[in-house]
Amino acid sequence: MMLTADLDVLTGYLTMHRERTWAQCQAGVASRFPGGMNEAKGRLLKEPAEWRPLCCDPAAVGIARRALRDFAFRAGLCDRTDDEVEAARRAFLAELGAGEAAAVRTDDTLEVTRGEIRLVLSADQQRVNRALWPRQAEDSADA
Questions:
Q1: Per-residue DSSP letters for 88-123?
Q2: pTM of structure
């Protein structure tokens, strides 16, 4: 959205896919493209709940580039170097400790939450795939 300097008049609207007009967006017309916010609901936690202990070596666990950036943001480390963020991520995993219970997701990845950070690890616990905000009680179906 583009607004005037006073932030009181909409002067333009752009969307990545040019799929909807501003009026359609305001009216709640659904996106024609997959992958929007509602698509994330496809990765639910298993029901009934299933748990697995963490058994990874924090120093050996890899991390996706986006997950490292998201971890930095959620940990308040955006102004730090990648090496400093990586060290903080390893410390975060080490603080969880071996045997910490991780929730199993329907795609068999694992998620674990501490404080304001929720990590999604690969099923083999060798890679951090995502760094997210903690689940809210009403958002238990979210990514």
A1: HHHHHHHHH-TT-EEEEBTTS-EEEEETTEEEEE-T
A2: 0.66
The answer to whether residues 54 and 98 touch, using CB atoms and an 8 Å cutoff, is yes
Q: In angstroms, rounded to a whole number, what is the distance separating the alpha carbons of residues 141 and 120?
A: 14
User: Could you tell me the end-to-end alpha-carbon distance of the chain, in angstroms, rounded to an integer?
Assistant: 26
Q: Are residues 19 and 46 in the same domain?
A: no
Structure confidence at residue 136 (pLDDT): 76
Residues 28, 20 contacting (CB under 8 angstroms): no
Domain that holds residue 8: 2-33
Give yes or no for a contact between 120 and 132, defined as CB atoms under 8 angstroms apart.
yes
Determine the 3-state secondary structure of 42 from DSSP. helix
Number of compact structural domains in the chain: 2
Q: What is the mean pLDDT of residues 89-111?
A: 90
Q: Are residues 9 and 76 in the same domain?
A: no
Q: 47 Cβ partners below 8 Å, 6+ apart?
A: none
